[in-house]
Design brief:
4-stranded mixed β-sheet, alpha/beta, about 25% helix, about 130 residues
Length: about 130
């Protein structure tokens, strides 16, 4: 088995895709106005309209209602990402901080309120764990 993607359901695909393109520097592949993907070498972030929920199971997902998942991106320099997003992101939850497990991390909220973590391994153990 291979974990390949996570999908965010939203009422505004264009707004959320624009946010993630700016935040990550990854260009989205837009299949339709209701579905887009931001593909990275290790996983894909899919963004889908609430209109797509009915194709799976009507009423099974609600947009902008996440209270338990954090979307995470490994980056080369979290402080640089923070500086680049400072005028763009409206809700930084935490500024870049070095965590006890060895990652330097910052949390922010996307336009739908989802938590997003950008992190850089900084200790030898963390760097080894995420060696590419």
């Amino acid at each position: 088995m291979d974990f390949v993607s996570i999908r965010i359901i939203t009422d505004d695909v264009a707004r959320l895709v624009e946010f993630y393109e700016k935040a990550t520097g990854v260009s989205a592949i837009r299949a339709t106005e209701d579905f887009a993907e931001l593909r990275t070498p290790s996983a894909t972030l899919a963004v889908a309209s609430t209109r797509t929920v009915a194709l799976f199971a009507p009423g099974s997902s609600r947009p902008a209602d996440n209270h338990s998942v954090i979307i995470e991106f490994l980056v080369d320099d979290v402080d640089l990402v923070h500086a680049n997003l400072a005028g763009f992101v409206g809700d930084f939850v935490t500024e870049p901080t070095t965590m006890p497990w060895g990652n330097r991390s910052m949390l922010l909220r996307d336009p739908d309120g989802n938590l997003v973590n950008f992190f850089t391994p900084v200790t030898p153990a963390a760097i080894e764990k995420f060696a590419r």
